[in-house]
Amino acid sequence: MPHRTALYHKVPPTCWPIVYSPDYNITFMGLEKLHPFDAGKWGKVINFLKEEKLIADDLIVQAREATEEDLLVVHTRRYLNKLKNHILEGFQEWSFVVATITEIPPVLFLPNFLVQRKVLKPLRTQTGGTIMAGKLAIDRGWAINVGGGFHHCSSDKGGGFCAYADITLAIKFLFERVEGVSKATIIDLDAHQGNGHERDFMDDHRVYIMDVYNRYIYPGDGFAKRAIKRKVELDWGTEDTEYLQKVQTHVEGALNESRPDIIIYNAGTDILDGDPLGGLAISPQGIVKRDEAVFMAARNHRIPILMVTSGGYQKRTARIIADSILNLHNLRLIDKELATSEAKNPKVELMIRESILDLTNLSLQ
């Protein structure tokens, strides 16, 4: 029997299926600035959406921290223990592991209780948010976790600022707890290969993985690539036209090849031109169009979709994520009315079909 969890709780129908907590943001004596990742971007996204009057605090689903029991659904106890306080040859092993995962060397010398509170708790809360958003996507037809997307972490190893395998956890929770969910498709459009979930689902035929990434950058995990069903490797400096054509073609191909019960969309913005780690050259408008294409495909195939925000290493990425969410709303690809009842409710399905018809008519005018 699945363990008792606080992550699958009843959400008021007045809330948008947008998950966030102020605890997502990492601020720790300026040490977070030693990594190119904007450790406060999640709060900035929410603030931009508030400024545009799309959401308010009481309309957001408050993320809850994943407990150790929640994490053990996927992670080994040995791995979780490495993130805690263990002594190894006079050094604190947990410090080395967390410093390596976050790529912030001074973390090596910090006390465990500070690392837990200031670094790992925000990541556990984002992980809880992804698990919660998975259930919301099934219930409402779509959901967005404003954080998450830790696609380099697998059950027994972290890396690349990813300490917990939130994508794997969200899928495993759904498979164990939600009737009728037995197949999932991961569409990973972060600039980096998603080697964590690939290793976790290497031999699991219930999970179809599509991954589009810069072939020349981290992690270059050849073993994990064996799990990718639809692999699209990009060259340095790939621009909008080529990129969007490949995304649209392969998303459609993936959904035709395998009919999932849910899509997990890893929407990294490190594809943005000028990103110090991504190495691609996609414009802000290109990112907005990419997200639109994925949500449109999910709508056309009538498949629930969960979006996580993943990587993105420039200050302007928060504004781009917010603009993309606003665009999805303007096109009614996400809509509060469509999300107030279960996605499989016939009335909701009728509204979805009418929205598709409206969009089709607009494109013909």
Written description of the protein model:
- The structure is a single chain.
- The protein has 365 residues and is an alpha/beta fold.
- Helix content is 40%, strand content 11%.
- The protein is built from eleven helices and ten strands.
- The chain has helices at residues 41-51, 68-71, 77-82, 93-102, 112-140, 166-177, 195-200, 240-257, 284-301, 317-330, 346-364; strands spanning 18-20, 61-62, 87-88, 91-92, 142-145, 184-188, 207-214, 230-234, 262-266, 305-308.
- It has an eight-stranded parallel β-sheet with strand order 2-1-5-10-9-6-7-8, with helices on both faces.
- A hairpin with a 2-residue loop joins strand 3 (87-88) and strand 4 (91-92).
- Helix 1 (41-51) packs across helix 10 (317-330) and helix 9 (284-301) runs parallel beside helix 10 (317-330).
- It starts with 17 loop residues before the first strand and ends with a helix.
- The relative contact order is 0.13.
- The model is unreliable at 341-348 (pLDDT under 50).
Radius of gyration: 19 Å
Question: How much is the average pLDDT?
Answer: 89
Q: Output the strand order for the largest sheet.
A: 2-1-5-10-9-6-7-8
Provide the structure class. alpha/beta
Share of residues in strands:
5-15%
User: What is the general shape?
Assistant: globular
SSE ordering: EHEHHEEHHEHEHEEHEHEHH
Distance between the termini: 54 Å
> How many helical stretches?
11
What composes the largest sheet? Answer: 8 strands, parallel
Low-confidence stretches: 341-348
Number of strands: 10
Q: What's the helical proportion of residues?
A: 40-55%
